[in-house]
Each structure stands twice: as C-alpha cells, then as structure tokens.
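Changelog-adjacent note: as of this version, every example in the card shows the full chain rather than a window. The one below runs 460 residues end to end.
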Amino acid sequence: MKRQGMRGARGALTICLVALASVLAVMAVFTIVRVVEKGGGLTLPLVILIGLAFLGLAATWIAFTVLDGHFRDIARLRADLLTAASIGTPLPKRWLGPSDADVEISGLARVAAEALLDRTAARSLPDERLSAVVAAAAEGLVVVTKNGLVSLVNAAALSLLGADRLAVGTSVYAAFDRESLAALTRQACERGEPVRGIARTAGGEDLEVRVADLGHHGGSVVSLPGAGEAVHPAVLHHDLALHDRPPPERPAAPETLLEELSLVVMDSETTGLDVTRDRIVSIGAVRLHGRRIFPDINMDVLVHPRMPIPPRSTAVHGISDEMVADAPTIGTRLAALRELVGSGAVVGHNIGFDLTILSREAERAGVAWTPPLSLDTGHLMAVLEPELRELDLDVIAERLGVDVEGRHTALGDAIVTAEIFVRLLPRLRDAGVSTLGEAQDFAARAERLRAPQKAAGWEI
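Full-length structure tokens:
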C-alpha cells in the first residue's frame, strides 16, 4: 500500500505539473494568435504576459525534473533497503558517501544504514564473544568442510602454518600434504572419535595433529597441539556457513516458488563470442537454493577446446593453450555439469550465450544435453530498473553493493552473479513475482536486451 501511495503521489504531482504547463502553453499561444488575428502589434503588457507564460513553462519543467529525480531516488533507496532488510546485507556504499541524491534522502539513507548496522551488531554479539575465546586459544585450530575448504582458522594456526597458505574459502591442502591429512580425516570419520597422528605440511614439516569429525555438520576440526603460546593479536577468520547443505532437490517447474527453487548459477569462458564456432575453455558453477549460496558445492574446471585460444581471448580470461593442454574435453565436463544441475534450474548473466554454446558443444561431442529452465540476471535487472542503461555484470554488481572478486574467471563470475540474484529476490517478490514462471515472463519484457541476443543466435 505504501508503494502504491508513493506512486499515487508521483502520478498526482505529474498530472498537476502537466496540467499547469498545458494551461501556460495555451495562454501563450492564444495570446499570440489573437494579436496576429487583430493585426496589432505586441504591446508591453502582452510581451510581459507571454514572457511570464514561458517563464512559467520553464519553471514547471525544472520542477518536474527535480521531483522526478527525487521520486527515482526514493524508489532506489526503497529497493536497497528492501534487499538489506531481507537478506542482512548493508546498504550499498554509494548511499554512505557523497551522493547525487538530495540532502533529505541522503540523510534518511544514513539513518537507515546505522539502524541496520545496530541490529546486525546486536545479533552478532554472542558470536563475537565466542570468536574472541577461540581466537585467543594457544592451540591452533583449523576447521575444514567435507570438500576440503577452510571454514575457520585462528591466530595460533596462522602463526604456525602461515597466513599465505591458510585462508577461509580456500583449500586446506595449500597448507597440508593431501595424503597424510586425508588419511587421518578418514580414520576419524570411520571410528567416530578423534584421532592423533602426523600430518605433513606443504613445506615438508611433520606436525602432530588431532583430527575430529564433525558428524552431521560435515567436515572436521584439525587441532595443532604444538602451536605454542597464544599469539597476539588474537585473530580469527571464519565462515562456518561453508558447512551448510541445501535442502533436498526439487524438480524445477514454472510454478516452483523462487524461494524454494534448486538452482545452479553458472558461467563459461570461451575462445570467443561466436556461438556458431567458438568453444568453451572453462566452466564455473555454484549451488544456490532460494536466498542461500552454497560456495562449497561448486564446479571450477578447465576444458580442452580442440582449437587454439586466440590471444585476445586469453587477454580477457587468462586461459592459455598451455593451461588446457591436459584438460578433458567437453563431454566429461558436460556430464559433471548435468549432475550438478540435476532437475533444478540455472541462473546466469547473459545465460543465453552459455546455454547456446553448451548445446553446440554437446552436439559436436555427441553427448545428450537438454537445456534446463533458466533465468538471466541482466534481463531481470533491465525490467526492475529500466532507467539503468548499462547492464553489464560490473555495473549491476556495483549498483547492488556486490563486491567483485575473480572477475573474468568462470567461477568468480558465477559467484558474483549468485550474489546479484540473491539481492534481486526480495525486489522481485515486491514486484509481485514469486514463481519461476512469473520470473521468466517478467524477464521476457527486457526486449532491449533480448532482441540483439536473439539476432546473435542465442537461445533465449
């Protein structure tokens, strides 16, 4: 109702200003016509009257422009607040620094940002206390997901193994020899109790460790009793959400709610942009369910394209002929992607390009491939914000407050796109879009993007 009220106020003011401009224009024209019909000259009062009418027109146009910009800023702030409140992200940085918006809206944005920050801080206080305790421990602690990603590391472990080898979200095998640590992890899982043993570091040093299985939480805790005294400053890096697992997969259908949709966000790097002849050199994908991103469930692979990679393409994505020389061809990779997608849907930025080139690759390789149901973040954004002229991934990411890392790598772009899609969900719901079919119909209105993509041969 509030949104309707805002639209009503904007519409009423627009009607009033248009009516006023029309009256002023009619007055000026009528006066000039009467003077011409009577064959008389323009007297000073008539000149003043006509001048006032045109000044009124100019003032009305300026007022309309200012008010229209004001209402646009309100709509943008409302959309960003809706996203921030729904998924727990801060307001985009552009609201917190110098802004093109007027003083009143900028002030409102700062107050809202502080309120969101206070609410987040209050919720996180117990976690902060626990984090302080773990950070100060003299024993080194490294928590690892089932797939080998580091989800927590404290100061003692960083001091012993090196911050350059241990980082949240990266492989633990950058710090440890895979074989020795994996063997202890298997033993802990099979026995159902912690085990002690020797794990070799990536630098060749033998360390006594204790490995405990996390059971249904997935993963393990690696303790380093030999870490020594507590390290200062006591720091802790963690993202325990890496252990989360999505709900059971449901087949995607037009009537499936977006909040309950099993999704894979994907991107590909190619030898070029011609879908009729260019080939895939890399595929990146990450699992998504509703608003939850599951970065531990991902795909990040190279593909042998069976053709030279042009230097201009290598300059963009950094993949050379030498890097893909020993990589499998597309047949193997398509099977892995099909398994990851399952019966869900896919999301991507310019996803029509990726799905078209995947279909061509499958046809060449003689591999069965049925394009899944899909959504394009660029199309959705084009309809949600029709005044946004540039719709490439970087512009949309900045607009929605998404930090861009790993740009022009397949997995990096897939993760950025996943963050964008999560931020679009509350805005789609607010626009009355709740199911996959409704979202596809909504995106189909982005004809300014779809028309040139169809002309390029993309499967839209």
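Structural remarks: The two ends are 35 Å apart (CA to CA).
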